[in-house]
Specification:
mainly alpha; two-stranded antiparallel ribbon
Length: 111
């Protein structure tokens, strides 16, 4: 029988804003700012008003991060790029995630 171990991350449904900030390497205030600037990012909120981000929300934030921080888009330019995107966002995000992982591995190999 093949074991299919799932990490805690695979089993999680919702992430706190702090967890998302750590994943992206940004401050929580930037995530709140991007949530206000990009209307398609809509995390769930619990009864206390705490944001609960889904994996889809995290992918949306990664896309914004990639456009704004890595490619140098303005906020307006990033909004236009997201709106005009013809390739499904998940495919683009998977490619970005793979390339980020390759970059991380290459950096680990450097002395």
């Amino acid at each position: 029988m093949a074991r299919t171990d799932k990490s805690d991350d695979d089993l999680k449904r919702y992430y706190s804003i702090g967890e998302v900030a750590t994943k992206l390497g940004v401050k929580t205030s930037l995530i709140r700012f991007w949530e206000n600037e990009f209307g398609h990012i809509k995390p769930n909120k619990n009864s206390r008003g705490d944001r609960r981000f889904t994996k889809e929300n995290i992918q949306q934030l990664r896309e914004v991060y990639h456009l704004v921080r890595e490619r140098g888009f303005t906020l307006e330019g990033a909004r236009r790029e997201i709106a005009s995107s013809t390739q499904p966002k998940t495919d683009k995000q998977e490619i970005v995630d793979r390339l980020t992982e390759v970059r991380r591995r290459l950096a680990a190999l450097q002395f």
